Amino acid sequence: MSGWVYILCSGRNGTLYVGVTNDLCRRISEHRDAAVPGFTKRYKVTRLVYFEEHPTIPHAIQREKNIKGWSRSWKTDLIERANPHWRDLWDDIAMP
User: What is the CA 22 to chain-centroid distance, rounded?
Assistant: First the structure.
């Protein structure tokens, strides 16, 4: 089973959140709907700005841990290489 690492933000220079999931659409939908209490609900972190797929959940978890250990500038560079305008990628992954 594959896993996904994703980064959400509240705005271009706002709060960042790094997460991992086995179902990207479901999990991002939960964040966007504020369905689960916690960090992203409290700080309104709902814009999907980066995601990557990994072959297994353990690989994804390790990548998430690595990214969480990075400085903000490294995370920003990762986002900007893939998504220079910090566009919300939800429409790219949402099921019709």
Answer: 12
Question: Residue 17's CB: how many other CB atoms inside 10 A?
Answer: 18
CA atoms in the 13 A half-sphere facing the CB of 44:
3
CA distances from 75 to 9, 56, 71 (A): 11, 22, 7
pTM of the model: 0.95
Fold of 3-93: GIY-YIG endonuclease (3.40.1440)
Residues 40-75 have pLDDT tens digits of 999 999 999 999 999 999 999 999 999 999 999 999
Give yes or no for a contact between 83 and 50, defined as CB atoms under 8 angstroms apart: yes
Report DSSP letters for 61-82, one per residue.
HHHHHHHHHS-HHHHHHHHHHH
